[in-house]
From TrEMBL:
SMART domains: JmjC. This is Cupin. InterPro entries: Cupin_8, JmjC_dom. Residues 112-270 form the JmjC domain. It comes from Oleiagrimonas soli. It comes from the Bacteria.
Amino acid sequence: MHDPVEERHGLDPLALPDEVLGSTKPLLLRGLVADWPMVHAARRSAADAVDYLRRFDRNAPVMALVAPPESGGRFFYNDDLSGFNFQRQQAPLAAVLGKLLDTAEQPDPPAIYVGSTTLDTYLPGLREDNPIDLDRLEQKLASIWIGNRSRIAAHQDLPDNLACVVAGRRRFTLFPPDQLRNLYIGPLDFNPAGQAISLVDFHHPDLDRFPRFEEALAHAQVAELEAGDALLIPSMWWHHIEALDAFNVLINFWWRSVPAYMDTPMNTLMLALMTIRDLPPEQRRIWQETFRHYVFEPDDATAEHIPEPARRVLAPIDENVARELRARLLQRLNR
């Protein structure tokens, strides 16, 4: 049995408390955006939802992923992981919306998915018409996700994420970050949408091939959202997403709680794979201790023996130091 995600009710989207936005565990915010005009349109019908979206469409082409009916809506790799089971097609958003309406009554339509499309670029004005107060957050990005029935493999995102379902229903299955080993993650540098994904088919898990997935399920949390509900997904929590209806729209807001000059730790991981992983075991242990000392468990004693003006990168890093470091790293990498 999965545990349900903790629920909160009666919250005001224009006055979300810091303890919600800063939560380190998922929170299901029932009815948070139920009063949005987009949600009201979607509750009337998919056609009304499409008409509402078209009011803001600036006629720019979007990237749609299209998978054949036999994919079962699962956007994934091909059999040998050398490619993918879908095609990318560029088309005007209005055409994609029309196609979704045309195929909504088909028993076995192709899976269509417009993912992570920047809201203000493609639908300017929609965010202002559906307000939420996140102004105090750093590094904000609003995106829209549109499609029919789909299954998006478990993955994790670096930013915190407030996912607002505005049309259709979605099921999220979430796992704590420490379930990495049990989710059987695929290639880091070749994946369907930029984030490494679990290779387990959640509808038909092959426990002979992926036996540790059973342990991951013991830690899973599940939330089913209807139009008007929102889900707070903390940074780096694994999440598998299923869109359950013939027409689905989600608007999400990403943010990071660190300064913009801090780069993604994924770059560090990639460099570590290149420079540390294949060292002899004893040398790897030396670097493990080095990272523990300087990165994961620094304390006052780490640099107290160095005069403060001379501590350089061992002092708190600011934007100027980060810029100098980035330039130095680029110079070394491009040698």
